[in-house]
Amino acid sequence: MPRVAFYTLGCKLNFAETSSLQRAFEERAYEVTPFGEAADVAVINTCTVTAEADRKCRQVIRRALRANPETCVVVTGCYAQLQPETIAAIEGVDVVLGAHEKFQLFQLVEAFEKREETQVSVSCIDDVTTFGPAFSSNERTRAFLKVQDGCDYTCAFCTIPLARGRSRSAPLGQILDQAREIAAGGFKEIVLSGVNIGLYGQGSLDQAPDASLLDLLRALETVDGIERYRISSIEPNLLTDAIIDFVAESAKFQPHFHIPLQSGDDDVLGTMRRRYRRALYADRVARILRLMPDACIGADVIVGFPAETEARFENTVQFLNDLPVAYLHAFTYSERPNTVAVDHLDKMDGATVPKAERSRRNRMLRILSQKKQHAFYNRHLGSTRPVLWESTEKNGLMHGFTDNYVKVQRPHDEARTGTIETVRLGAFAEDGSVTAEDAAFMSLL
Q: Burial of 234 by CB count in 10 Å (0-12 exposed, 13-18 middle, 19+ buried)?
């Protein structure tokens, strides 16, 4: 059997799309082998959110070739869409596929073999209007289901609209069919994924949308076999009262929200071209916790954006200190070509932040995140919560997450994998998770 290996960089959406590509290879009798081992084909699905992601892509390509110099190297994803010539110039790359072409891989590539000249198939992103369905299936407990792609927003720091095109959504019926397929595979939880999920059904390419995001959530609630749903991330201005109210009353949608903030200073948010201000963000958090007091709320924050003076960064820190969120994902601003922040730097309301200072600010927010997560976990010690146990075993332990996203550990027991079990949250473990006590309390299969 020919062998294929996969490597995915970036977001959960990329992982979902890689899983779909993997299934396509398996249907054609390819054996999937771990990346880094010798393979006949290496498929690398790339990200380009930061310069580090670009560097990692080049590193992964070299790693594939070290394992087997004769590997046919296929590179796709956002970096491939934005910089196809750069990737094609990397020694050893055989095929470069854009955002649209990744789903036509077997139609475009006649033979997976080394080439003297790199095959480049990349459409203009403005011409990409179709939706490529995808879901991940590598774990036995949780699946990531792609429901939306692209973005109609023009945030000053972001290249994603250039890499993935305008917003478009999967038809409701298609998503429900995939959810049923996931349920048939034994999965208990689905995470809804997309570039800007809040635009589901209202993107610029959804000419005749058959459903809104709220319609989608209500329909998914009826799928037998799936016990849990999470929304991977949703913009605060698109997180409506109706969606929050629905989750609060839902038997399946978990009390867990991830809401990008990016900055806690209104001047920076304006320069970033974000579509909300901190008062709206605080209002969304307050409504969630008023209806779901135990809910977990996470936030994305970018530090070092050109408009972020020291005083404005301090505004962000103070805002986050006072905000009852449970954790932060802190990102260091990275200049990306063809973004507003780079092309119109002179119009940014501030000055370029030195990279050392960007790193310092990132460290500050990561420390703050640790404190907030510890406080959130600590508040729930002694309570009983349902945990979905995952399949990965490490050092004799297994882990899972509660409905409100507290990470829990217990001694590994293969029979518990993929089950939802109500446990008492005990004490903090060395890895920062929480131990499970009275794990035999109740088991929901």
A: buried
The DSSP result for 70-97, as a single string, is T-EEEEEEHHHHH-HHHHHTSTTEEEEE
C-alpha–C-alpha distance, residues 285 and 290, integer Å = 9
Q: Please give the distance of CA 282 from its chain centroid, rounded to a whole number.
A: 23
Q: Cα 186 to the chain's mean position, in Å?
A: 22
Domains detected in the chain: 3-123 (3.40.50.12160), 125-254 (3.30.750.210), 384-444 (2.40.50)
- CA-closest candidate to residue 99, choices 70, 67, 66, 134: 134
Beta strand ranges found along 112-163 (DSSP E): 119-121, 142-146, 148-149
Structure tokens at 316: 């962000």
Q: Report the C-alpha gap between 61 and 92 in whole angstroms.
A: 8
> Mind giving me the DSSP string for 267-295?
HHHHHHT-S--HHHHHHHHHHHHHH-TT-
Task: Judge contact between 62 and 30, C-beta under 8 A.
Answer: no
Task: State pLDDT tens for residues 142-168.
Answer: 999 999 999 999 999 999 999 999 999
**Helix count (H) and strand count (E) of the chain?**
14, 19
Q: Name the one residue in this structure whose structure tokens are 């404005």.
A: 312
State the greatest distance between any 2 C-alpha atoms of the chain, in Å, as a whole number.
63
Task: State the burial class of residue 216 (Cβ atoms within 10 Å of its Cβ: 0-12, 13-18, 19+).
Answer: buried
Check: CB of residue 228 under 8 Å from CB of residue 265. Answer: no
**Residues 241-271 pLDDT 10s:** 999 999 999 999 999 999 999 999 999 999 9
Looking at residue 35, what DSSP letter applies? Answer: B
Reply yes or no on whether the pLDDT at 208 is more than 70.
Answer: no
Distance, in Å, from the CA atom of 15 to the CA atom of 256, rounded to the nearest integer, reads 21
